[in-house]
Amino acid sequence: MVGGALQIAGLLVGGIGMIGTFAVTGMPQWRVSAFIENNIIVFETIWEGLWMHCIRQANIRMQCKVYDSMLALSTDLQASRGLMCAGSVLSFLAFMVAIIGMKCTRCAQSNRQAKGCIILTAGLLFILSGVIELIPVCWVANTIISDFYNPVVNVAQKRELGEALYLGWVAAFCLIAAGAIFCCFCRCCEETRSYGYSAPTLYPTLSQHLHRKTESSYSKSQYV
């Protein structure tokens, strides 16, 4: 009962992380315009994402345009595209593998060892997808912070951390947490299985010892 609840909790946390990864990949709020010093154009907000940049004017309308060329992007955004796509695919694959390895599913239900291997694979995939997602999010955040405090960079070109980065950290944490839950569940199952296998071996040894002792006592009495 506890194992099934633990699996469901890991699946829910992993599903939240997977959906968050998809959302972060498509959101344009990776870089947000910073209103500092002489930049007083506060009615216009600029968003820069992995696939497009948007301009939002006074919370009334928003215009977005897809990047004309990938080569025009900075190095961190170019690498973030591939890493986020890889993280999205791995998180979806981990989610599907976790569903197959659940106790409530009928696939490979007769083989518990196969179920444990499937769950362990899902946990490792969740952890890998979370780590892959952390790389671009932290990279872009580091670039934004470095440019913000760099006096050489023009004030109009400075950006702040967008909502997508915060959501990316939360999604990566959920993926890693889901992977840890599945790995711990698989470890606990292995320990329980080992205890279950080792315990019965003690009883035949004890019974054989008692049987030999009684036989020896009977032989001595008969001898007398």
From TrEMBL:
Listed GO MF terms: structural molecule activity
Gene3D superfamilies: 1.20.140.150
Transmembrane portions of the chain: 79-105, 117-145, 165-185
InterPro entries in UniProt: Claudin (IPR006187), Claudin_CS (IPR017974), PMP22/EMP/MP20/Claudin (IPR004031)
Assigned GO CC terms: bicellular tight junction; plasma membrane
PROSITE patterns: CLAUDIN
Location, primary (coarse class): other
Cellular compartments annotated: Cell junction, Tight junction; Cell membrane
Recorded topology in the membrane: Multi-pass membrane protein
This protein's UniProt keywords: Cell junction, Cell membrane, Membrane, Tight junction, Transmembrane, Transmembrane helix
Signal peptide (residue range): none
Transmembrane helix as UniProt keyword: yes
Pfam family, one: PMP22_Claudin
Keyword match Transmembrane: yes
Function (record text): Claudins function as major constituents of the tight junction complexes that regulate the permeability of epithelia.
Family: Belongs to the claudin family.
Protein name: Claudin
Species this chain originates from: Podilymbus podiceps (Pied-billed grebe)
Gene from which this protein is expressed: Cldn8_0
